[in-house]
Amino acid sequence: QVLSRGEVGTRDRWSSLRRAAGPTYWILFAVALVWVLSPLWIGPFPPLTDFGGHVQMAAIWNAIPDHSAFDALFSRNDGIFTPNILTARFAEVTEPLLDPLTALRLFTTLALASLALALAWCLRVFDRPRWLVFLSLPFLWNGMTMLGLLNYVIALPCMFVGVGLARRVGTAPRPTYYGIGLALTGMIAFYTHAIGLVFFVGMSGLTLVLSAQRRRRLLWLGALVPGTAAW
To answer: Using CA atoms, how far apart are residues 155 and 52, in angstroms rounded to an integer?
Structure first.
């Protein structure tokens, strides 16, 4: 591929910025992330609309096996292909170390931190300066976060991981591991949120179609089949 001088100069500047993204970058990234996510841990309750509903669901989910009153009113819908219950499962796994409220504070923190890391990785995959991720950090408080749709929030990092993996599948000399990763991420996206999987498939599929350097790479669209079949 022949590059113009301007394109070569741009690549060189981006390479310099990437080399500068050493320990300083990650220290600043961590500090900024802590500052952006601190409202989740300040005050008696996070300022998210549906957060209380998830706390109630997690508390009841954990109480059903031991309390006959709950057992008479509620039942666990925990089949092998049941999405949208990761918040309850996370609270169950962390009990008794954490109460449901603290567990879901931690769940949301991990979800948004994962989203920030996924965005940083996408910048690297698409050969863009990773410093640009700082522009996106305030938008971790997006509409779905503010609504408190916690299962959908954890689907967001899956979407951007899927975009990065699809790009690698289309351009890497050996795409096998990236294709396997795309299939596994699709299954994870399904379990996070059923509607989130639709966006995962659309974003990843379009990225792969636009990035494929050979037509045979389009066969890797089959990596999106397992999650779609589960859906």
So the answer is: 20
